[in-house]
Design a protein that fits this description.
CATH topology of the largest domain: Thrombin, subunit H
CATH architecture of the largest domain: Beta Barrel
Distance between the termini: 66 Å
Largest sheet: 6 strands, antiparallel, barrel
Radius of gyration: 22 Å
Number of helices: 5
Strand content: 35-45%
Order of helices and strands: HEEEEEEEEEEEEHEHEHEEHEE
CATH class of the largest domain: Mainly Beta
Structural class: alpha+beta
Shape: elongated
Oligomer: single chain
Number of strands: 18
Helix content: 10-25%
Length: 294
């Protein structure tokens, strides 16, 4: 038997093992994939959720109703509790062994349409991307295993079918990113499975970048300032309750200058979730500081 046949047989074996652990999430028109991490618990991306109850499509064709046990929207992870039947829990691998060129197999079950298995190679390590709410997610594995829409939340695995990452972000033109299955991920998954959702500061605003803010202020005859322009404020959000309004320019948070969303998230993370948070604004020509209550 030649090398191509050997490769095909190896991928078939992976599909038989790790493929049984890979599930569909949502419905047949909208959803994603997930993977059984222990009996009765499924790991997926938070962006695959649309409500507290979801439908789980097992690889053997059975369906189950799942309930969200814990979700981290910023980290784009969620754990769902459901009857996973005979689906085995996937075995965790060692992401520390990955290097540029390492072969990986991506598995998805797009919205329950059946298991798909593809081969690719690691093209980058330690990459980052934006989570659903704009926070940077670091440490991702970039790879080239093709994915159908609806495959996010499914695993990438090694040659033995062991978990190396959770597919999350499509870069386009044949590149994809997965959250690395390292010790940190195992701890986060365990906490989410216990219902422990991470507590992070949240303002509830839509923002425009600093260069947009400078251009708009210049256009109306105001002095240019670096900062983030508030484009919208969510109703009954911490920002609205503190008096932040559309058109305000956020220039500092917790005493730290803010010129990018990364600056903002770092500043939010520097203050305990239950502590008061000072936010410095420029409204027209007036600078003021408001307090987000803890």
């Amino acid at each position: 038997m030649g090398p191509i046949e050997d490769l095909g047989r190896a991928i078939g074996e992976i599909a038989e093992t790790a493929g049984r652990s890979t599930v569909g999430i949502g419905n047949r028109w909208r959803g994603g994939s997930g993977v059984v991490v222990e009996s009765g618990k499924v790991l997926t991306n938070a962006h695959n959720l649309h409500g507290e109850e979801v439908t789980i499509f097992l690889a053997d064709g059975k369906e189950a109703t799942g309930t969200v046990l814990g979700a981290d929207a910023d980290g784009d992870l969620a754990v769902i509790g459901a009857d996973t039947g005979d689906a085995p829990a996937i075995e965790w691998g060692d992401g520390a062994t990955l290097g540029i060129g390492s072969p990986v197999v991506a598995i998805g079950n797009p919205a329950g349409q059946g298991v798909r298995v593809t081969l690719g190679f690691v093209s980058g390590l330690g990459r980052s991307f934006r989570g659903p709410r704009g926070r940077r997610v670091a440490g991702a594995v970039e790879h080239t295993a093709p994915l159908l829409p609806g495959s996010s939340g499914g695993p990438i695995v090694d040659g033995a079918g062991r978990l190396l990452g959770i597919n999350t972000n499509r870069l386009g033109k044949g590149f994809y990113q997965a959250i690395a299955a390292d010790v940190s991920l195992r701890e986060r998954v365990s906490a989410l499975g216990r219902g422990e959702t991470p507590k992070r500061r949240y303002l509830g605003v839509g923002l425009a970048p600093s260069h947009v803010a400078r251009g708009l202020r210049r256009a109306v005859g105001l002095d240019e300032r670096d900062g983030l322009l508030v484009r919208e404020v969510e109703n009954d959000s911490p920002a609205e309750r503190a008096g932040i309004a559309e058109g305000d320019l956020i220039v500092a948070v917790a005493g730290r200058a803010v010129t990018s969303t990364d600056d903002l998230f770092e500043a939010l993370g520097s203050v305990a979730a239950d502590a008061d948070l000072p936010v410095t604004l420029v409204r027209g020509t007036e600078e003021r500081t408001v307090t987000i209550s803890g």
